[in-house]
Amino acid sequence: MDLGLKGKRALVLASSRGLGLGIAEALCAEGSKVVICGRSQDKLDAAARRLNDAYEGTAYPVVIDLSADNSAEELYRAAKEALGGSIDIVVNNTGGPPPGSIAAVPAEVWRQQFDSMVGRVFDLTALVLPDMRAQGWGRILNTASSGVRQPIPNLGISNALRASIVGWAKTLSAEVAGDGVTVNTILPGRIHTERVDELDAAAAARTGKTVEEVATASRNAIPAGRYGRVEEFAAVAAFLVSEKASYVTGSLIAVDGGSIKGI
């Protein structure tokens, strides 16, 4: 299936590794021009070289720390310059906050995590929307977590803040649908990334179990019986930002191997 992504200009946040890099790779494979970004110049340069050697599309690395003030504006300008025009696709992907109980999170931690995980997403989207609406085509895809539908124990900050993105995205989707802009949110379950390995290690340290015992229990709780692969998740994301998904908006799409128990 031709997804109609050849030549589209995309910006994928937090894309030096993990799910963000997987989505960037899927878009490059479709012939898109993709800005990848993160805090590590070395990781970004290595990723861009690999993608540019392997695919028809082009990856452009941009170093940015989205926890910094005015970083959304800085990234927006750098991405437009790298891509040589307006941004057609934005994938709002952000790193996960530290695990832990939600009962005693300090106020300053809430503010810091909101700014980097949520505030920058709102700011950046507000910057790209005028061009999308003017050209009558745009795709905004937010990566959240299965925890917004079924809260994940010990990931209280993530459960709370990512849920705020879901409410914002649903509201925004109705406002811009008539302009040819779609807004969707994709919910990864247990996709095997470095982040999942880190969470398994944290759970092992907390419970006194081995990492393998934690991972085995986690896999056994998933109806599919395994962790998902990054490329499986990225394929769904690529479809949602494609020409073919023009009538899909305001939706929550889970890629979780059946983990969410609710309807």
UniProtKB/TrEMBL annotation:
<dbReference type="Pfam" id="PF13561">
    <property type="entry name" value="adh_short_C2"/>
</dbReference>
<dbReference type="InterPro" id="IPR002347">
    <property type="entry name" value="SDR_fam"/>
</dbReference>
<dbReference type="InterPro" id="IPR036291">
    <property type="entry name" value="NAD(P)-bd_dom_sf"/>
</dbReference>
<keyword id="KW-0560">Oxidoreductase</keyword>
<protein>
    <submittedName>
        <fullName>3-oxoacyl-[acyl-carrier protein] reductase</fullName>
        <ecNumber>1.1.1.100</ecNumber>
    </submittedName>
</protein>
<comment type="similarity">
    <text>Belongs to the short-chain dehydrogenases/reductases (SDR) family.</text>
</comment>
<dbReference type="InterPro" id="IPR050259">
    <property type="entry name" value="SDR"/>
</dbReference>
<dbReference type="GO" id="GO:0004316">
    <property type="term" value="F:3-oxoacyl-[acyl-carrier-protein] reductase (NADPH) activity"/>
</dbReference>
